[in-house]
Design a protein that fits this description.
Layout (H helix, E strand, L loop, with lengths): L4 H13 L4 E6 L2 E6 L7 E2 L22 H6 L7 E4 L4 E4 L15 E2 L4 E7 L2 E6 L4 E6 L6 E2 L4 E5 L1
Antiparallel strand pairs: 1-2, 3-8, 4-11, 5-7, 5-10, 6-9, 7-8, 9-11
C-alpha cells in the first residue's frame, strides 16, 4: 500500500472529526502514524500536526529565523503574541471577498477566530488565546508561515 497525500489527508480528517489524537496503520513493510498534539497554550480547531511531531509550543517565542529581520525593524510591540501552531499559509478572512476576521484596533475575546491557516489542503481556524485589542498584525494575507511564528499582538 502506498500512502498518498489524499489518503493521509483523509486520515487527518478522521482524527479531527472523531476527536482522536493518533492513528497508526501498518501494511507489510510500510507503516504510518499520524498524531495530533494538543498544546496547552494554543487553541485551534482540529489542527492535525505533522506525522510524528511532538515539539512543545512556546507561545511568546518568535521563530529564530526572524531574529535578523527584527533587528532592523522597530522593537516588538508590548502585548501578548498569538503564534502559529503549524506551518502553512495565512488567510485573514474566510474567503477572498469576505471581511478579515480581525483588524488592527479591533477588540477580540479569548476563543474568537483570528485567522485561518491552510495546511495540507485543510483549513484550520486559529482562535485567540487572549482577550484585548489587536495592536499589530505581523503577516499578510497569503503569506507562508512557520510553526511558532508571531501572527499578531493583542494588548
Amino acid at each position: 500500500m502506498k500512502f498518498e497525500t489524499e489518503y493521509i489527508e483523509k486520515l487527518a480528517k478522521i482524527i479531527a472529526d472523531n476527536e482522536l489524537t493518533e492513528i497508526s496503520l501498518e501494511d507489510g513493510e510500510q507503516a504510518i502514524t499520524i498524531r495530533k498534539d494538543l498544546p496547552e497554550v494554543m487553541m485551534s480547531s482540529a489542527a492535525p500536526a505533522a506525522v510524528q511531531v511532538s515539539a512543545p509550543v512556546q507561545a511568546a517565542a518568535p521563530v529564530p529565523a526572524q531574529a535578523p529581520a527584527a533587528a532592523n525593524e522597530a522593537p516588538a510591540p508590548k502585548g501578548k503574541a498569538i503564534t502559529s501552531p503549524m506551518v502553512g499559509t495565512f488567510y485573514a478572512s474566510p474567503s477572498p471577498d469576505a471581511e478579515p476576521f480581525v483588524e488592527v484596533g479591533k477588540t477580540i475575546s479569548e476563543g474568537d477566530v483570528v485567522c485561518i491557516i491552510e495546511a495540507m489542503k485543510l483549513m484550520n481556524e486559529i482562535k485567540s488565546e487572549h482577550s484585548g485589542k489587536v495592536i499589530q498584525i505581523c503577516v499578510k494575507n497569503g503569506d507562508p508561515i512557520e510553526y511558532g511564528q508571531v501572527l499578531m499582538y493583542v494588548e
